[in-house]
Amino acid sequence: MEKAESIQSREQRIVKLTIECVDLPQQNWDGHREIWLGIQQGKDVVQEVKLPVETASFRCELRVGNDSSQGSPNFLGPCAQGTVQDRFVYLCWGYRHLGMWAGFRRAKLPLGHLTWVNIEDNQVHVTVRCTDPKGGPICATVRDEFVSWSSLQ
Q1: CA angle (119, 115, 23) in 5-degree steps
Q2: Cα separations (Å) of 138 from 8, 44, 58, 107?
Q3: 3-state DSSP call for residue 131?
Q4: CA pseudo-torsion sign 81, 87, 89, 94
């Protein structure tokens, strides 16, 4: 059996996703005097990092099941957002106020382009440039020129 076939035949596994955030915006932006960056897990924002920092790293585990309708990886778990056809991870911008998260922007990091070959070693690393052309935190769907998937084969 070919390597790709054996990978696709697995019912479920854990893939460790590491998101390395670089080129972070300034601590003060658009009236926000304190900015934090975190990853969305379910409805909560976790692993928050207070700016200014040089880089911020986030790690999460994604369960991967086989999407039988397309034969592509189906990412599951608390950090996987969206539908089967449009899976992604959210990076969230905001701050803590009285223990509650007060978010003002989110960046959607798509996972749909990842193939079984890309995740065969159960680890994926992505570097994200987090400052938009106007100097603010990136938001909406992160464009290709802002990301580098270093573990893609």
Answers
A1: 70
A2: 34, 19, 16, 6
A3: strand
A4: negative
Residue that is written with structure tokens 């035949």 in the block:
9
Task: Kindly report, residue by residue over 99-118, the tens digit of the pLDDT.
Answer: 899 999 999 999 999 988 88
Q: What is the widest separation between alpha-carbon atoms in the chain?
A: 58
* 84 within 8 A of 65, measured Cβ to Cβ: no
Radius of gyration of the chain (CA): 16
| CB burial of residue 92 (10 Å; 0-12, 13-18, 19+) | buried
CB-hemisphere CA count at 13 Å for 94?
Answer: 22
Residue 29, pLDDT score: 87
From start to end of the chain, where are the E strands? 12-22, 36-41, 44-50, 56-67, 72-76, 88-97, 100-110, 123-129, 140-141, 147-149
Measured between alpha carbons, how far is residue 21 from residues 10, 57, 138 in Å?
31, 6, 11
Q: Which helix (H) or strand (E) holds 3?
A: helix 3-9
pLDDT at 152: 52
